[in-house]
């Protein structure tokens, strides 16, 4: 069960770029949850993936020489859902469908991948820990930064650009 959680039920075995597959599948699941169930399942998914990741990842890595195998993608799901929460929750509060605000899931995806690959500041510091906690934390930091930048970009668009159009 630990490996199923860590690989996001096998998505981590997809090639190439398992991290991107993990992030993309999290976005797809998040959009489906928003459309067919309830938007608050995205932040709930973030919390669940975070708790399960912090539980499963150390167990999977125990005794392994590789402390950050690419097939572990529960961290990408947690970080991606955190990033999406920054746009999903305001859209829900304003009664706007995520499908009507498509940048609401595209921007967090692209920004999350950018921060996850670039690893600036706290993202890189967490990654350099070289342990299970760092494996989870770097994606949570990347998700937080992606969410914040998504909100800033939405504010710039709606506050400055949209009125001029």
TrEMBL record:
SUPFAM superfamilies (alphabetical): YutG-like
Cofactor(s) named in the record: Mg(2+)
Function in brief: Lipid phosphatase which dephosphorylates phosphatidylglycerophosphate (PGP) to phosphatidylglycerol (PG).
Name this polypeptide is given: Phosphatidylglycerophosphatase A
Transmembrane segments: 36-57, 139-160
Record's bilayer topology term: Multi-pass membrane protein
Subcellular location: Cell inner membrane
Species for this entry: Paracoccus yeei
UniProt GO molecular function: metal ion binding; phosphatidylglycerophosphatase activity
The keyword Cytoplasm belongs to this UniProt entry's keyword annotation: no
Signal sequence, renumbered to the chain: none
